[in-house]
Structure formats: C-alpha cells, structure tokens
Amino acid sequence: xxxxxxxxxxxLVLLILLIQVFAEAALENVDGGGETGALYKKYxxxxxxxxxxxxxxxxxxxxxxxxxxxCGTCCMRCHCVPPGTYGNRNACPCYASLxxxxxxxxxx
Length: 108
Hints:
Strand content: under 5%
Distance between the termini: 64 Å
Mean pLDDT: 78
Low-confidence stretches: 30-40
Number of helices: 5
Largest sheet: none
Shape: rod-shaped
Number of strands: 0
C-alpha cells in the first residue's frame, strides 16, 4: 500500500462518505413514535419563518402586538409554533412548556 497512498486516501474518503449516506438514510426512516411524533416532525422545523407563523397564530388576538412579541420570543427559542390561532400546544412541547416569572404560560 505504500506505493499507492493517493488510491488509499481516495478509497478511505469514499468509504466515509458512503457510511455517512447510509447513516442519514437510517435516521430519516426512524419513526417518531405515533401521532405525536408525526406532529412533531410536521411542525418542528429549524428554518421556520417566525414572523409569518406568529402573524398567523395571533391574527385573532385582542392584543396583537403583545401576542406577536411573545410568540416571536417563543418561536426563536423553540423553532416551532403550534398550528391555528389557539390551542394545539401538543404539536410543540417546547412552546407549551415556556413559563413567565409568575408561572403562567409565556407563549400564546
């Protein structure tokens, strides 16, 4: 092998890339655990457009500015906003678990 170090290096790089492809494919096929896992996968996206998602969430709120500001903070921390204008918190556990200093739910 000492005569062909370039061939060995190329083979090693190719082998590592192949292992990585199979590992990523295996992770995509892992089931999230039923319906809640499907909801988590559907609504948990690291590249979420927080201003748009919060505008949709707060469109029927009586205090839109307060709702949008709180929702924006929660969205930036959790990368997730539950669907609809109210409820559906089981779709985003992080969003539902955030609390104010007084112990009340932070996210609208």
